[in-house]
Amino acid sequence: MADNKSVPDTDRGASTGVLAYLVVAAAVILLMMLFGLLMRLEQARFIDIGALWFYRLMTLHGAGMVGVAGLAGAAVMWHFLSRYVDLSPTILMANLVLFLGGVGMVLGSVLLGNFHGAWTFLYPLPGNTMGMWSAGAAALFLGGMLVIGVGFVLLHLDVARALIARYGSFARALGWPQLFGADDGKAPPPAVVASTMVTIVNLLALVVGATILSMMLVNLYLPEFAIDPLLAKAMIYFFGHVFINATIYMAVIAVYEILPRYTQRPWKSGKVFLAAWTLSTLMVLFIFPHHLLMDFAFPKWMLVMGHVIGYMNTFPILLVTGYGALMIVHRSDIDWDMSSRLLFLGLFGWTVGVMPAFIDGTIPVNYVMHNTLWVPGHFHTYLLLGMVAMVFGFMYFLGKARRDERDGILDRAAFWAFVVGGMGFVLSFLMGGKEGAARRYAQHLPEWLPYDRAGSVFAALVIAASLLFIVRFLLRLGPARREHARASIPVGLPAA
Fold first, then answer.
1. Cα-based angle 239, 166, 69 (whole degrees, multiple of 5)
2. High-pLDDT (> 70) share of the chain, %
3. All residues at 6 or more sequence positions from 452 whose CB lies less than 8 Å from its CB, including other chains
4. Cβ(33)–Cβ(462) under 8 Å?
5. CA-closest candidate to residue 45, choices 440, 443, 431
6. Cis peptide before 490, with omega less than 30 degrees from 0?
7. Is the Cβ–Cβ distance between 142 and 216 less than 8 Å?
8. Residue 413 CB-half CA count within 13 A
9. Would you say 170 and 164 are in contact if contact means Cβ atoms under 8 Å apart?
10. Cβ(465)–Cβ(415) under 8 Å?
11. Phi/psi zone of residue 243: left (φ > 0), alpha (ψ -120 to 50 degrees), beta?
12. Taking the model in full, what pTM does it have?
Protein backbone atom coordinates (compact mmCIF):
# COMPACT_ATOMS: atom_id res chain seq x y z
CA MET A 1 0.00 0.00 0.00
CA ALA A 2 1.10 3.54 -0.64
CA ASP A 3 2.70 5.74 1.95
CA ASN A 4 0.13 6.97 4.43
CA LYS A 5 0.43 10.59 3.31
CA SER A 6 -0.44 9.74 -0.29
CA VAL A 7 -3.42 7.51 0.38
CA PRO A 8 -6.54 9.33 -0.87
CA ASP A 9 -8.96 10.11 1.97
CA THR A 10 -12.11 9.19 0.10
CA ASP A 11 -14.09 9.27 3.35
CA ARG A 12 -12.59 12.40 4.87
CA GLY A 13 -15.58 14.44 3.69
CA ALA A 14 -18.89 14.08 5.49
CA SER A 15 -22.53 14.25 4.54
CA THR A 16 -24.52 17.40 5.15
CA GLY A 17 -26.41 15.62 7.93
CA VAL A 18 -23.26 14.62 9.81
CA LEU A 19 -21.84 18.13 9.51
CA ALA A 20 -25.12 19.59 10.77
CA TYR A 21 -24.93 17.25 13.78
CA LEU A 22 -21.39 18.36 14.52
CA VAL A 23 -22.15 22.07 14.22
CA VAL A 24 -25.11 21.73 16.61
CA ALA A 25 -23.08 19.50 18.94
CA ALA A 26 -20.18 21.98 18.99
CA ALA A 27 -22.50 24.88 19.88
CA VAL A 28 -24.28 22.94 22.63
CA ILE A 29 -21.05 21.54 24.11
CA LEU A 30 -19.59 25.05 24.32
CA LEU A 31 -22.77 26.38 25.92
CA MET A 32 -22.87 23.54 28.45
CA MET A 33 -19.22 24.19 29.31
CA LEU A 34 -20.07 27.82 30.01
CA PHE A 35 -22.95 26.73 32.27
CA GLY A 36 -20.56 24.41 34.09
CA LEU A 37 -18.06 27.23 34.57
CA LEU A 38 -20.77 29.47 36.04
CA MET A 39 -21.68 26.75 38.54
CA ARG A 40 -18.08 26.31 39.63
CA LEU A 41 -17.67 30.10 39.93
CA GLU A 42 -20.76 30.20 42.14
CA GLN A 43 -19.44 27.41 44.38
CA ALA A 44 -16.06 29.19 44.52
CA ARG A 45 -17.83 32.43 45.57
CA PHE A 46 -16.29 34.30 42.66
CA ILE A 47 -19.81 35.29 41.53
CA ASP A 48 -23.22 35.36 43.16
CA ILE A 49 -25.97 34.09 40.88
CA GLY A 50 -27.93 32.52 43.74
CA ALA A 51 -29.13 29.00 44.40
CA LEU A 52 -32.12 29.27 42.06
CA TRP A 53 -29.98 30.01 39.02
CA PHE A 54 -27.44 27.42 40.11
CA TYR A 55 -30.05 24.66 40.01
CA ARG A 56 -31.48 25.94 36.75
CA LEU A 57 -28.02 25.75 35.20
CA MET A 58 -27.38 22.36 36.79
CA THR A 59 -30.58 21.01 35.22
CA LEU A 60 -29.70 22.41 31.78
CA HIS A 61 -26.05 21.33 32.05
CA GLY A 62 -26.91 17.74 32.94
CA ALA A 63 -29.70 17.30 30.40
CA GLY A 64 -27.75 19.16 27.73
CA MET A 65 -24.54 17.15 28.09
CA VAL A 66 -26.35 13.81 28.05
CA GLY A 67 -28.30 14.80 24.94
CA VAL A 68 -25.41 16.37 23.04
CA ALA A 69 -23.10 13.45 23.88
CA GLY A 70 -25.67 11.18 22.25
CA LEU A 71 -25.93 13.51 19.23
CA ALA A 72 -22.17 13.78 18.71
CA GLY A 73 -21.69 10.04 19.18
CA ALA A 74 -24.44 9.36 16.66
CA ALA A 75 -22.65 11.59 14.12
CA VAL A 76 -19.47 9.53 14.48
CA MET A 77 -21.34 6.23 14.26
CA TRP A 78 -23.49 7.25 11.27
CA HIS A 79 -20.52 8.66 9.34
CA PHE A 80 -18.49 5.46 9.47
CA LEU A 81 -21.32 2.93 9.55
CA SER A 82 -22.76 4.40 6.34
CA ARG A 83 -19.62 3.05 4.60
CA TYR A 84 -20.82 -0.50 5.34
CA VAL A 85 -24.63 -0.39 5.37
CA ASP A 86 -27.34 1.64 3.66
CA LEU A 87 -28.56 4.23 6.18
CA SER A 88 -31.31 6.80 5.63
CA PRO A 89 -30.21 10.47 5.49
CA THR A 90 -33.87 11.44 5.99
CA ILE A 91 -34.04 9.65 9.34
CA LEU A 92 -30.71 11.20 10.31
CA MET A 93 -32.12 14.69 9.75
CA ALA A 94 -35.45 13.81 11.40
CA ASN A 95 -33.57 12.95 14.59
CA LEU A 96 -31.78 16.30 14.47
CA VAL A 97 -35.06 18.18 14.01
CA LEU A 98 -36.64 16.33 16.93
CA PHE A 99 -33.54 16.94 19.03
CA LEU A 100 -33.69 20.69 18.41
CA GLY A 101 -37.42 20.72 19.14
CA GLY A 102 -36.90 18.84 22.40
CA VAL A 103 -34.04 21.15 23.38
CA GLY A 104 -36.31 24.13 22.80
CA MET A 105 -38.94 22.60 25.09
CA VAL A 106 -36.36 21.91 27.82
CA LEU A 107 -34.96 25.46 27.58
CA GLY A 108 -38.46 26.88 27.82
CA SER A 109 -39.32 24.79 30.86
CA VAL A 110 -36.19 25.92 32.72
CA LEU A 111 -35.71 29.52 31.61
CA LEU A 112 -39.37 30.50 31.34
CA GLY A 113 -41.09 27.97 33.59
CA ASN A 114 -38.42 27.88 36.30
CA PHE A 115 -38.15 24.07 36.32
CA HIS A 116 -34.97 23.01 38.11
CA GLY A 117 -35.50 19.41 39.18
CA ALA A 118 -32.20 18.13 37.65
CA TRP A 119 -31.84 16.09 34.48
CA THR A 120 -32.65 12.91 36.42
CA PHE A 121 -36.23 14.24 36.98
CA LEU A 122 -36.73 11.68 39.78
CA TYR A 123 -40.33 10.91 40.62
CA PRO A 124 -42.24 12.41 42.41
CA LEU A 125 -40.19 15.65 42.36
CA PRO A 126 -41.50 17.09 39.05
CA GLY A 127 -45.07 17.00 40.36
CA ASN A 128 -44.28 18.05 43.96
CA THR A 129 -42.89 21.50 43.41
CA MET A 130 -43.84 23.38 46.61
CA GLY A 131 -44.73 26.28 44.34
CA MET A 132 -41.29 26.49 42.68
CA TRP A 133 -42.62 25.66 39.19
CA SER A 134 -45.90 24.74 37.57
CA ALA A 135 -47.14 21.39 36.34
CA GLY A 136 -46.94 22.86 32.84
CA ALA A 137 -43.23 23.63 33.24
CA ALA A 138 -42.57 20.09 34.45
CA ALA A 139 -44.61 18.68 31.56
CA LEU A 140 -42.64 20.80 29.09
CA PHE A 141 -39.36 19.42 30.47
CA LEU A 142 -40.53 15.80 30.50
CA GLY A 143 -42.11 16.23 27.08
CA GLY A 144 -38.91 17.71 25.68
CA MET A 145 -36.91 14.76 26.95
CA LEU A 146 -39.50 12.43 25.41
CA VAL A 147 -39.29 14.16 22.03
CA ILE A 148 -35.49 13.86 22.06
CA GLY A 149 -35.80 10.18 22.96
CA VAL A 150 -38.25 9.52 20.12
CA GLY A 151 -35.75 10.99 17.67
CA PHE A 152 -33.01 8.66 18.87
CA VAL A 153 -35.40 5.69 18.72
CA LEU A 154 -36.06 6.46 15.04
CA LEU A 155 -32.33 6.74 14.36
CA HIS A 156 -31.51 3.42 16.03
CA LEU A 157 -34.44 1.67 14.36
CA ASP A 158 -33.04 2.77 11.02
CA VAL A 159 -29.59 1.51 12.01
CA ALA A 160 -31.18 -1.81 13.08
CA ARG A 161 -33.00 -2.05 9.73
CA ALA A 162 -29.80 -1.41 7.79
CA LEU A 163 -27.75 -3.89 9.84
CA ILE A 164 -30.31 -6.67 9.48
CA ALA A 165 -30.73 -5.95 5.76
CA ARG A 166 -26.98 -6.29 5.28
CA TYR A 167 -26.00 -9.02 7.71
CA GLY A 168 -29.26 -10.91 8.25
CA SER A 169 -29.40 -10.60 12.05
CA PHE A 170 -27.91 -8.84 15.04
CA ALA A 171 -26.03 -12.05 15.86
CA ARG A 172 -24.19 -11.96 12.53
CA ALA A 173 -23.56 -8.23 12.86
CA LEU A 174 -21.96 -8.92 16.26
CA GLY A 175 -19.76 -11.56 14.63
CA TRP A 176 -21.21 -14.56 16.45
CA PRO A 177 -20.53 -17.04 13.61
CA GLN A 178 -16.83 -16.14 13.85
CA LEU A 179 -16.88 -15.89 17.67
CA PHE A 180 -18.51 -19.25 18.31
CA GLY A 181 -17.29 -21.02 15.18
CA ALA A 182 -14.25 -21.00 12.96
CA ASP A 183 -12.68 -17.59 12.48
CA ASP A 184 -12.92 -17.34 8.71
CA GLY A 185 -11.61 -13.78 8.61
CA LYS A 186 -15.01 -12.49 7.47
CA ALA A 187 -16.18 -10.98 10.76
CA PRO A 188 -17.93 -7.62 10.48
CA PRO A 189 -15.60 -4.62 10.86
CA PRO A 190 -15.30 -2.98 14.29
CA ALA A 191 -17.59 -0.09 13.31
CA VAL A 192 -20.39 -2.54 12.54
CA VAL A 193 -19.86 -4.56 15.73
CA ALA A 194 -19.86 -1.43 17.91
CA SER A 195 -22.89 0.03 16.15
CA THR A 196 -24.82 -3.20 16.62
CA MET A 197 -24.08 -3.25 20.33
CA VAL A 198 -25.10 0.40 20.72
CA THR A 199 -28.31 -0.15 18.75
CA ILE A 200 -29.39 -3.10 20.90
CA VAL A 201 -28.75 -1.48 24.26
CA ASN A 202 -29.95 2.01 23.33
CA LEU A 203 -33.25 0.78 21.90
CA LEU A 204 -33.94 -1.02 25.18
CA ALA A 205 -32.87 1.99 27.25
CA LEU A 206 -34.83 4.50 25.19
CA VAL A 207 -38.03 2.46 25.31
CA VAL A 208 -37.73 2.20 29.10
CA GLY A 209 -36.99 5.93 29.33
CA ALA A 210 -39.94 6.84 27.11
CA THR A 211 -42.20 4.62 29.20
CA ILE A 212 -41.37 6.28 32.52
CA LEU A 213 -41.52 9.75 30.98
CA SER A 214 -45.00 8.98 29.62
CA MET A 215 -46.11 7.61 32.99
CA MET A 216 -44.86 10.73 34.77
CA LEU A 217 -46.61 13.01 32.27
CA VAL A 218 -49.90 11.24 32.99
CA ASN A 219 -49.25 11.50 36.75
CA LEU A 220 -48.76 15.28 36.51
CA TYR A 221 -52.38 15.75 35.47
CA LEU A 222 -53.93 12.61 36.96
CA PRO A 223 -52.30 12.25 40.42
CA GLU A 224 -54.45 9.21 41.14
CA PHE A 225 -52.32 7.43 38.52
CA ALA A 226 -49.70 6.51 41.12
CA ILE A 227 -46.22 5.27 40.28
CA ASP A 228 -44.00 3.20 42.54
CA PRO A 229 -41.08 5.60 43.29
CA LEU A 230 -38.57 2.77 43.47
CA LEU A 231 -39.66 1.41 40.09
CA ALA A 232 -39.51 4.91 38.62
CA LYS A 233 -35.98 5.44 39.93
CA ALA A 234 -34.81 2.10 38.56
CA MET A 235 -36.28 2.86 35.13
CA ILE A 236 -34.76 6.36 35.02
CA TYR A 237 -31.32 5.15 36.05
CA PHE A 238 -31.46 2.20 33.65
CA PHE A 239 -32.27 4.55 30.78
CA GLY A 240 -29.75 7.22 31.78
CA HIS A 241 -26.85 4.92 32.57
CA VAL A 242 -27.14 2.84 29.41
CA PHE A 243 -27.60 5.89 27.17
CA ILE A 244 -24.62 7.83 28.53
CA ASN A 245 -22.40 4.74 28.36
CA ALA A 246 -23.44 4.19 24.76
CA THR A 247 -22.19 7.65 23.80
CA ILE A 248 -18.56 6.66 24.20
CA TYR A 249 -19.20 3.30 22.51
CA MET A 250 -20.31 5.32 19.48
CA ALA A 251 -17.45 7.82 19.72
CA VAL A 252 -14.80 5.09 19.95
CA ILE A 253 -15.72 4.04 16.40
CA ALA A 254 -13.63 7.05 15.35
CA VAL A 255 -10.61 5.36 16.96
CA TYR A 256 -11.29 2.08 15.13
CA GLU A 257 -11.68 3.81 11.78
CA ILE A 258 -9.23 6.72 11.84
CA LEU A 259 -6.09 5.33 13.50
CA PRO A 260 -5.68 2.53 10.91
CA ARG A 261 -5.64 5.22 8.21
CA TYR A 262 -2.63 6.79 9.90
CA THR A 263 -0.74 3.58 10.58
CA GLN A 264 -1.82 1.58 7.49
CA ARG A 265 -2.55 -1.33 9.82
CA PRO A 266 -6.06 -2.80 9.86
CA TRP A 267 -8.05 -3.06 13.09
CA LYS A 268 -9.18 -6.67 12.97
CA SER A 269 -12.34 -8.10 14.50
CA GLY A 270 -10.75 -11.14 16.10
CA LYS A 271 -12.36 -13.51 18.58
CA VAL A 272 -11.20 -11.54 21.63
CA PHE A 273 -12.55 -8.30 20.17
CA LEU A 274 -15.90 -9.90 19.32
CA ALA A 275 -16.16 -11.56 22.74
CA ALA A 276 -15.50 -8.25 24.50
CA TRP A 277 -18.28 -6.46 22.64
CA THR A 278 -20.73 -9.32 23.16
CA LEU A 279 -20.00 -9.42 26.89
CA SER A 280 -20.46 -5.67 27.20
CA THR A 281 -23.73 -5.84 25.26
CA LEU A 282 -25.09 -7.96 28.09
CA MET A 283 -23.34 -6.41 31.06
CA VAL A 284 -24.06 -2.75 30.29
CA LEU A 285 -27.76 -3.58 30.73
CA PHE A 286 -27.28 -4.83 34.29
CA ILE A 287 -24.78 -2.47 35.93
CA PHE A 288 -27.00 0.54 36.67
CA PRO A 289 -27.69 -0.55 40.31
CA HIS A 290 -24.10 0.36 41.18
CA HIS A 291 -25.44 3.95 41.23
CA LEU A 292 -28.10 2.91 43.74
CA LEU A 293 -25.97 1.24 46.40
CA MET A 294 -27.15 3.75 49.02
CA ASP A 295 -30.80 2.84 48.35
CA PHE A 296 -31.34 0.22 51.05
CA ALA A 297 -34.91 -0.34 49.81
CA PHE A 298 -33.68 -1.94 46.59
CA PRO A 299 -33.57 -5.74 46.54
CA LYS A 300 -30.20 -6.87 47.79
CA TRP A 301 -29.60 -9.09 44.77
CA MET A 302 -29.86 -6.04 42.47
CA LEU A 303 -27.23 -4.14 44.44
CA VAL A 304 -24.89 -7.14 44.51
CA MET A 305 -25.42 -7.59 40.76
CA GLY A 306 -24.61 -3.94 40.12
CA HIS A 307 -21.48 -4.21 42.28
CA VAL A 308 -20.13 -7.37 40.63
CA ILE A 309 -21.05 -6.58 37.02
CA GLY A 310 -19.88 -2.99 37.52
CA TYR A 311 -16.43 -4.39 38.22
CA MET A 312 -16.55 -6.83 35.31
CA ASN A 313 -17.86 -4.39 32.70
CA THR A 314 -14.96 -2.02 33.33
CA PHE A 315 -12.53 -4.12 31.35
CA PRO A 316 -13.60 -6.01 28.17
CA ILE A 317 -14.08 -3.23 25.60
CA LEU A 318 -11.60 -0.90 27.27
CA LEU A 319 -8.85 -3.53 27.26
CA VAL A 320 -9.30 -4.63 23.65
CA THR A 321 -9.53 -1.01 22.49
CA GLY A 322 -6.56 0.25 24.49
CA TYR A 323 -4.38 -2.74 23.65
CA GLY A 324 -5.46 -2.65 20.01
CA ALA A 325 -4.63 1.05 19.72
CA LEU A 326 -1.18 0.53 21.22
CA MET A 327 -0.50 -2.40 18.88
CA ILE A 328 -1.40 -0.63 15.65
CA VAL A 329 0.55 2.49 16.66
CA HIS A 330 3.65 0.72 18.02
CA ARG A 331 6.55 1.15 15.58
CA SER A 332 4.17 2.38 12.89
CA ASP A 333 6.05 5.64 12.31
CA ILE A 334 2.74 7.44 12.70
CA ASP A 335 2.75 11.13 11.82
CA TRP A 336 0.95 12.56 14.83
CA ASP A 337 -1.47 15.40 14.21
CA MET A 338 -4.36 16.96 16.13
CA SER A 339 -6.81 14.25 15.16
CA SER A 340 -4.65 11.32 16.25
CA ARG A 341 -3.53 13.15 19.41
CA LEU A 342 -7.10 13.90 20.47
CA LEU A 343 -8.21 10.34 19.75
CA PHE A 344 -5.40 8.99 21.93
CA LEU A 345 -6.26 11.50 24.62
CA GLY A 346 -9.84 10.20 24.42
CA LEU A 347 -8.63 6.66 25.09
CA PHE A 348 -6.60 7.94 28.04
CA GLY A 349 -9.59 9.83 29.47
CA TRP A 350 -11.84 6.80 29.05
CA THR A 351 -9.30 4.56 30.78
CA VAL A 352 -8.64 6.92 33.66
CA GLY A 353 -12.31 7.86 34.01
CA VAL A 354 -13.47 4.36 34.81
CA MET A 355 -11.07 4.06 37.75
CA PRO A 356 -12.94 6.46 40.09
CA ALA A 357 -16.15 4.66 39.10
CA PHE A 358 -14.52 1.33 39.92
CA ILE A 359 -13.59 2.69 43.36
CA ASP A 360 -16.98 4.28 43.97
CA GLY A 361 -18.71 1.06 42.91
CA THR A 362 -17.27 -0.64 46.00
CA ILE A 363 -20.07 -0.69 48.56
CA PRO A 364 -18.12 0.53 51.68
CA VAL A 365 -16.61 3.38 49.63
CA ASN A 366 -19.93 4.21 48.02
CA TYR A 367 -21.58 4.85 51.39
CA VAL A 368 -19.08 7.64 52.03
CA MET A 369 -18.21 8.99 48.58
CA HIS A 370 -21.25 8.77 46.33
CA ASN A 371 -22.90 12.03 47.33
CA THR A 372 -19.66 13.98 47.07
CA LEU A 373 -17.85 15.64 44.16
CA TRP A 374 -16.02 12.35 43.60
CA VAL A 375 -18.81 11.19 41.29
CA PRO A 376 -18.80 14.30 39.05
CA GLY A 377 -15.02 13.81 38.96
CA HIS A 378 -15.56 10.36 37.50
CA PHE A 379 -18.06 11.23 34.82
CA HIS A 380 -16.33 14.47 33.80
CA THR A 381 -13.13 12.48 33.23
CA TYR A 382 -15.04 9.92 31.20
CA LEU A 383 -16.96 12.51 29.15
CA LEU A 384 -14.62 15.50 28.89
CA LEU A 385 -11.23 13.80 28.51
CA GLY A 386 -12.75 10.71 26.91
CA MET A 387 -15.84 11.10 24.77
CA VAL A 388 -15.56 14.84 23.98
CA ALA A 389 -11.86 14.50 23.11
CA MET A 390 -12.73 11.74 20.62
CA VAL A 391 -15.39 13.96 19.04
CA PHE A 392 -12.91 16.82 18.70
CA GLY A 393 -10.46 14.36 17.11
CA PHE A 394 -13.15 13.34 14.63
CA MET A 395 -13.86 16.99 13.84
CA TYR A 396 -10.18 17.64 13.14
CA PHE A 397 -10.12 14.56 10.88
CA LEU A 398 -13.02 15.89 8.82
CA GLY A 399 -11.71 19.45 8.85
CA LYS A 400 -8.37 18.72 7.17
CA ALA A 401 -8.53 18.72 3.38
CA ARG A 402 -5.28 16.71 3.16
CA ARG A 403 -3.58 14.43 5.62
CA ASP A 404 -0.23 16.17 5.15
CA GLU A 405 -1.73 19.55 6.06
CA ARG A 406 0.24 20.73 9.07
CA ASP A 407 -1.32 21.81 12.35
CA GLY A 408 -0.54 25.33 13.48
CA ILE A 409 1.12 26.37 16.71
CA LEU A 410 -2.25 27.54 18.03
CA ASP A 411 -3.70 24.07 17.50
CA ARG A 412 -0.87 22.43 19.41
CA ALA A 413 -1.07 25.03 22.19
CA ALA A 414 -4.84 24.47 22.45
CA PHE A 415 -4.29 20.71 22.68
CA TRP A 416 -1.98 21.05 25.67
CA ALA A 417 -4.27 23.65 27.23
CA PHE A 418 -7.13 21.17 26.89
CA VAL A 419 -5.02 18.40 28.46
CA VAL A 420 -3.80 20.53 31.39
CA GLY A 421 -7.13 22.24 31.90
CA GLY A 422 -9.11 19.01 31.64
CA MET A 423 -6.90 17.09 34.05
CA GLY A 424 -6.82 19.95 36.51
CA PHE A 425 -10.59 20.36 36.28
CA VAL A 426 -11.41 16.71 36.97
CA LEU A 427 -8.79 16.48 39.74
CA SER A 428 -10.42 19.44 41.48
CA PHE A 429 -13.64 17.41 41.59
CA LEU A 430 -11.91 14.24 42.77
CA MET A 431 -9.87 15.98 45.45
CA GLY A 432 -12.92 17.91 46.61
CA GLY A 433 -14.85 14.64 46.84
CA LYS A 434 -12.01 13.05 48.78
CA GLU A 435 -12.32 15.89 51.30
CA GLY A 436 -16.09 15.40 51.52
CA ALA A 437 -17.30 18.32 49.35
CA ALA A 438 -21.00 17.68 48.82
CA ARG A 439 -22.41 16.94 45.40
CA ARG A 440 -25.18 19.18 43.95
CA TYR A 441 -24.73 21.94 46.55
CA ALA A 442 -24.88 25.54 45.34
CA GLN A 443 -23.04 26.80 48.44
CA HIS A 444 -19.84 25.21 49.74
CA LEU A 445 -18.08 25.33 53.08
CA PRO A 446 -14.92 27.45 53.35
CA GLU A 447 -12.66 24.39 53.46
CA TRP A 448 -13.97 23.27 50.06
CA LEU A 449 -13.40 26.60 48.30
CA PRO A 450 -9.77 25.98 47.20
CA TYR A 451 -10.91 23.02 45.06
CA ASP A 452 -13.79 25.07 43.61
CA ARG A 453 -11.49 27.95 42.75
CA ALA A 454 -8.86 25.77 41.15
CA GLY A 455 -11.60 23.99 39.20
CA SER A 456 -12.92 27.33 37.92
CA VAL A 457 -9.52 28.33 36.54
CA PHE A 458 -9.00 24.98 34.84
CA ALA A 459 -12.55 25.06 33.44
CA ALA A 460 -11.84 28.43 31.81
CA LEU A 461 -8.71 26.93 30.21
CA VAL A 462 -10.73 24.00 28.83
CA ILE A 463 -13.33 26.37 27.36
CA ALA A 464 -10.66 28.50 25.67
CA ALA A 465 -9.08 25.41 24.08
CA SER A 466 -12.46 23.98 23.04
CA LEU A 467 -13.43 27.29 21.46
CA LEU A 468 -10.30 27.19 19.30
CA PHE A 469 -10.99 23.56 18.29
CA ILE A 470 -14.52 24.48 17.24
CA VAL A 471 -13.56 27.68 15.40
CA ARG A 472 -10.84 25.81 13.50
CA PHE A 473 -13.35 23.13 12.51
CA LEU A 474 -15.89 25.67 11.29
CA LEU A 475 -13.30 27.71 9.34
CA ARG A 476 -11.89 24.60 7.65
CA LEU A 477 -15.27 23.14 6.80
CA GLY A 478 -15.73 24.84 3.42
CA PRO A 479 -12.20 24.28 2.04
CA ALA A 480 -12.14 20.69 3.28
CA ARG A 481 -15.44 19.87 1.56
CA ARG A 482 -14.30 21.44 -1.72
CA GLU A 483 -11.00 19.54 -1.63
CA HIS A 484 -12.85 16.33 -0.84
CA ALA A 485 -15.30 16.88 -3.71
CA ARG A 486 -12.37 17.22 -6.14
CA ALA A 487 -10.38 14.28 -4.81
CA SER A 488 -12.97 11.70 -3.80
CA ILE A 489 -13.91 8.76 -5.94
CA PRO A 490 -17.08 6.66 -5.52
CA VAL A 491 -16.60 3.88 -3.02
CA GLY A 492 -18.93 0.89 -3.02
CA LEU A 493 -20.03 -0.96 0.08
CA PRO A 494 -17.59 -3.73 1.09
CA ALA A 495 -18.72 -7.28 0.59
CA ALA A 496 -20.66 -8.82 3.45
1. 30
2. 93
3. 40, 43, 44, 45, 428, 432, 437, 444
4. yes
5. 443
6. no
7. yes
8. 7
9. yes
10. yes
11. alpha
12. 0.92
